[in-house]
Amino acid sequence: MEKIFFDVKKEFCQECSMALRRFVGKMEGVESVDIENGKIALEFDSRKITPEELSRITRESIEKLGYKTE
Known about the structure:
Layout: E1 2-7, H1 14-25, E2 30-36, E3 39-44, H2 51-64
Antiparallel strand pairs: 1-3, 2-3
């Protein structure tokens, strides 16, 4: 398992946090999604999804929810 981290400029509201967990957490290869204090940690299997693909999809999802990554 590998981990990838994101910093978000402001803390997620609970509804947005749940939406991100539902969407990203259901992707093949994603094992866990932890969101706390403006930080996101994704644990994933790089044999099923590349870090680059996961990063792109996660950043796009964060921006669709109205947040910016640092």
